[in-house]
Specification:
The protein has 5 helices and 11 strands; from the N terminus they run H-E-E-E-E-E-H-E-H-E-E-H-E-E-H-E. By secondary structure, the chain is an alpha+beta fold. The strands form 2 sheets. A 6-stranded mixed barrel has the order 1-5-2-4-3-6. Strands 7-9-10-8-11 form a 5-stranded antiparallel beta sheet. A hairpin with a 5-residue loop joins strand 3 and strand 4.
């Protein structure tokens, strides 16, 4: 009996690893839901504190920290999320999104919606790349040093540099942006990478831009400086 149990767990672990190594670029279609507000602050399956302001999701089987491009099949809007939880466990649903992710693909008011999820290749965050964003407070997606001008806004922030770079590039492609920057603040494990737009000339334009990005789905758009 003990031998059978051991063999069962070996099979379970190997099967799970094979699934976790799913093909980059593979796509799935199904129904997406999003977290209720009551889950704010609760512990996710990978031990993080859940936040509806983050760009995360729950999936039943994909490996934690897998990055997914999620596209609303009704309107074509898409964003990039990271798996940090398990679920949803309702038949027919394939992903559970944070509220911010749901807002960004225009699905928050609808509740449920059909989406396509695509497993995307994470960027290799090398020591040299980390050093760029450690030594330069603000850089573009290629690691070139940039200075903030006039007023700036932080659209979103994360501790995951790879996710920040991928979402920055995604926004550059899908939105009418001349440039989106990565600004880093904090030390060690507390370092946060902000997606920043800069060069906003007046406070009137600042308020207008803040409103624009909030309507795009970002839930914590903040005036940004390096102090």
């Amino acid at each position: 009996m003990k031998i059978f149990i051991k063999l069962f767990f070996v099979f379970f672990i190997v099967f799970g690893q094979l699934f976790a190594q799913d093909t980059i670029g593979k796509t799935y279609q199904g129904i997406a839901s999003f977290y209720a507000k009551k889950f704010e602050g609760r512990t996710t399956a990978n031990g993080e504190n859940f936040s509806n302001y983050d760009m995360t999701c729950a999936h039943r089987k994909l490996k934690f920290n897998t990055l997914l491009k999620v596209t609303n099949l009704k309107n074509g809007l898409s964003t990039i999320v990271r798996v940090n939880d398990r679920g949803p466990y309702v038949k027919g649903r394939i992903i559970d999104l944070s509220e911010q992710a749901a807002r960004m693909i225009g699905k928050y008011q609808k509740g449920l919606g059909k989406v396509e999820i695509e497993i995307i290749q994470p960027l290799a965050v090398t020591t040299d790349l980390k050093a760029v964003f450690k030594n330069e407070p603000v850089a573009d997606c290629l690691g070139n040093k940039v200075k903030l001008k006039n007023f700036s806004l932080s659209l979103w922030r994360t501790k995951d540099l790879s996710h920040a770079l991928l979402l920055a590039n995604h926004l550059y492609v899908t939105e009418d942006l001349k440039k989106i920057l990565i600004a880093s603040k904090g030390l060690g494990k507390n370092r946060m990478y902000h997606l920043v737009i800069t060069g906003i000339q007046t406070k009137t334009e600042l308020n207008s831009s803040k409103d624009f990005w909030e309507r795009k789905g970002f839930m914590k758009v903040l005036v940004f400086d390096l102090k």
